[in-house]
């Protein structure tokens, strides 16, 4: 590998790490400020008529109060929830659970051990091909010199 390809590979790895870090810190908080709400408080808000719309995705309910503030809550299996929301005139939107493709960080975490093993294997293979310039068996090189009787002086 020449210097250009080594530098290119290094910059690609740095770029991927930066993207992964960006995705890690830009999780659910990037969707807007949502107030976490206890389920009992959510039911009380629905009963008082202060909830305008909800989106149900699995056991997660997100929505807006009548004043525009956003909230999110986790619901236990409540068979009467949809009926209770309909009685209070809340707009209900149901979304299937999120089974989309994993994030870039998830892909990197799942592939990292395999890529690390391949990288170590390539490193050792390249070291063994070194030959006389510091190859696999360069650790035992002798530094002995030929003895010249005429050069011996005390």
SSE arrangement:
Elements: H1 3-25, E1 35-36, H2 39-48, E2 51-57, E3 60-65, E4 70-74, H3 81-87, E5 91-95, H4 104-128
Parallel strand pairs: 1-4, 2-5
Antiparallel strand pairs: 2-3, 3-4
Structural account:
By secondary structure, this protein is an alpha/beta fold. The mean pLDDT is 80. Strands 1-4-3-2-5 form a five-stranded mixed sheet, with helices on one face. 42% of the residues lie in helices and 16% in strands. Strand 3 (60-65) and strand 4 (70-74) form a beta hairpin. The chain has helices at 3-25, 39-48, 81-87, 104-128; strands at 35-36, 51-57, 60-65, 70-74, 91-95. It is built from four helices and five strands. It has a domain at 32-95: Signal recognition particle alu RNA binding heterodimer, srp9/1, CATH 3.30.720.
Biggest sheet: strand arrangement:
1-4-3-2-5
Note poorly predicted spans. none
Strand residue percentage: 15-25%
Main structural class: alpha/beta
Helicity, as a percent range? 40-55%
Summarize the structure.
The protein has helices at 3-25, 39-48, 81-87, 104-128, and strands at 35-36, 51-57, 60-65, 70-74, 91-95. With 154 residues, the chain is an alpha/beta fold. It has a domain at 32-95: Signal recognition particle alu RNA binding heterodimer, srp9/1, CATH 3.30.720.210.
Provide key terms for this protein.
single chain; about 150 residues; alpha/beta; five-stranded mixed beta sheet
């Amino acid at each position: 590998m020449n210097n250009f390809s080594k530098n290119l590979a290094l910059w690609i790895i740095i770029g991927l790490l930066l993207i992964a870090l960006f995705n890690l810190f830009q999780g659910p908080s990037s969707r807007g400020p949502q107030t976490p709400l206890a389920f009992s408080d959510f039911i009380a808000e629905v009963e008082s008529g202060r909830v305008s719309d909800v989106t149900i995705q699995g056991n997660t309910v997100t929505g807006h109060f009548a004043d525009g503030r956003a909230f999110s809550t986790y619901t236990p299996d409540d068979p009467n929830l949809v009926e209770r929301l309909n009685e209070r005139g809340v707009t209900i939107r149901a979304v299937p659970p999120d089974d989309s493709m994993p994030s870039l960080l998830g892909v990197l975490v799942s592939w990292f051990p395999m890529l690390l093993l391949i990288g170590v294997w390539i490193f050792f293979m390249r070291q063994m091909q070194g030959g006389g310039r510091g190859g696999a068996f360069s650790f035992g090189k002798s530094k002995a010199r030929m003895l010249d009787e005429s050069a011996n002086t005390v």
